[in-house]
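Exercise (ungraded).
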Amino acid sequence: MKTLLKLFTVLSITVLLSCGGKEDKKKDSSSESNSPKTEKATQTPAAKTETAAKTQEVKPSKRVDLTTKGVGPIKSVTLASTIDQDMAAKGAEVFKNMCTACHRTDKKFIGPAPTGILERRTPEWVMNMILNPEGMVKEDPLARELLIEFNGSPMANQNLTEAEARSVLEYFRTL
Amino acid sequence: MKNILKTSVALVSILIGFTSCNNSGKSNGGSGALASNVAEKVYVPPGEYDSHYAFMSGGYSGNLTVYGLPSGRMFKEIPVFSQFPTNGYGYTEETTPMLETSYGFVPWDDSHHPDISQTDGVLDGRWIFINGNNTPRIARISLTNFETEEIIEVPNSAGNHSSSYITENTEYVVAGTRFSVPVPQRDMPIKDYKGNFKGALTFISVDPEEGHMDIKFQILMPGFNYDLSHPGRGKSHGWFFFTTYNTEEANSLLEVNASQNDKDFIAAINWKKIEEYVNNGGGTMMPANYAHNLYDEDTHMATSTMKKEVRVVNPSEVPGAIYLLPTPKSPHGVDVDPSGEYIVGNGKLSANLTVHSFTKMIDAIENKEFDGDAYGIPIIKFEDVLAGSVEQAGLGPLHTEFDGKGNGYTTFFISSEVVKWKLGTWEVLDRKPTYYSVGHLTIPGGNSREPFGKYMFAMNKITKDRYLPVGPEMEHSAQLYDISGDKMELLLDFPTHGEPHYAAAIPAEIIMNNVKKIYRLDENEHPRKATNESETKVVREGKNVHIYMTTIRSHFSPDNIEGVKVGDKVFFHVTNLEQDFDVPHGFAVIGANTAELLVMPGQTRTLTWEPKQVGVWPFYCTDFCSALHQEMQGYVRVSPADSNLDLSWSLGE
């Protein structure tokens, strides 16, 4: 009986140990990054906390980045000084049909409100987000952070043409 | 007693011996360097594509399944003649009209012989047609959206088996009756079958642009059983060939009584001649009642129309259009080689394969060398039309396909094998066993003018021990062979769904670049669509409540609905606002007596729900659509029948 008990204990410990395996690994990796192995490693956590603090201060949706053009087919957009009203009207129609299921102009809905977007993003970034949302979430750090801010709700690719996306951008200028 | 025991022991050991022989035979064929070589031939690495599509009839599933070759992976089941709760086909308001017939709503059939549309005798990959055997119907399936777009019922027909084969330019899809019946149907003694029943062979014209089907004429043939058919091609284009059995016209115990004659017939029909006769006003319009069901991709809806007459032609009206070619014994399949010269009659109770010559047939007709007639239809002398026989090729020949290199491949049901033989010399070149009891076989394009002869697959009726046992009921098995060399090489076994009778296969590149990925929202003309959220609403029309609803990752709009009452009939008209490839949304509501909806991007589908209990009832998305899929849900409040609560609906309020 005693031996049985012993055996049982050993077995239980083994089970416990193997259960804990995953967590241990996680701890290991985190402690690794914390351990002052190299100079780089000591710097990384500091940089990380800095970003984290920043994120807490300014949400990705509020952050201003007027240099990043994003990832996608749009490399350069030139905005005329005056708004093309015809194009904007067309963009309003496209926006209504293709975007309003998730975006309201005046408030956060499923996704962020586009009002004032060109004060925070480049026109290229906006169009790439419309035309290539999957690629943006994968490769553009800000787009990825936005996905997390907006609860993991993916930006749908509504298969707009470049001209349609451009008109939506023009419409955003009127908001 | 002891003796009996001994004998049984001996018998059992012999049996064991046999089985182990088989087993070792199997493992020999499938091990070592050879096996890895074979594995490479069917291995399609992750993310890469198969080289061919194969479309297998579902048999008693009533549907059509899509496979890849050489991997044998199943990609899709396309619902055709059967309700399909997986996506709501045959349950939704949009698709129930597809299954309407003159017998009312028929939610099942037995689908047999798919055939791909052709241009100049070459597969063009626009549509695939398939027959419903039990309640005679022909369906057309689009090969751009892989959906059933049209079903036409075939009147005066029963057991629609010698169907659905396509002429060289898809002028016609042809449907022949297996069972002869009284035409028109009437109350009469069964024993008076002989001489009174008719076999209707139906030529359905296909619109070259849209593919729409319309019965051009029916030939009312003698009361034989019309088993299978194939069009002529090349030099024999304009002719159609049908096998017959039960030329005895027996009406009972056909197993014995329909196998009395040494020879039955292949009926050769000059359809161009009959077409000309009909175009000049020939034939008789006969009262009939049959459904024509058509799906409109713009409205996303099907409509069913009952047609009230059909044009019939009696063989005696068009002399010189129909001849009978004697063929031993109860021929099953009739297959025409790519040149159009050879007409192969697969006499299923024979050991030999009979091949007729089209040229000899035309000569005999010109020389008027006939051997009497049947009901006025001239019978050509067997010797005058025979091109040759493949002697003692196997037992029970059923079907033949061609590789385009001068060879035929015939299945032998009783001896469970595929035999490769040479056209013209009739010599047997190779034979390979099938596991077990093979029915049809398919070579991509193997019944057209231009076969793509790299692969052949056999569809077997008996599966037995080929896979892990799964109880008495098993899926059937297909076997893929490489036919690019002199000898056939068995590459792969793969299970199929239902009972594939015939199959059609085609190189992937002919189809894959035309395949639709989404339905465009701006082309959606569904009468109850909501193509953006501002169009969502709930409308009461008496007891009917119409909910115009939208879906996008990951919410329904509206998702809170109140004012529905017990006794109402609620229609959820769900439009999927997504415009991206492979983002369907599902819709299911508690207690629905139908099925779910699976709504493709840009599509509108309608689920009908008749709430019977007061309460607040949830609905949800069934297709895991995003990380927030589990949040994609909503509620309908159902109030008592006498409630005064007005309809209201909302999202996020």
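Further reading is listed at the end of the chapter. For now, observe: The two ends of chain B are 87 Å apart (CA to CA). Residues 9-31 of chain B have pLDDT under 50 and may be disordered.
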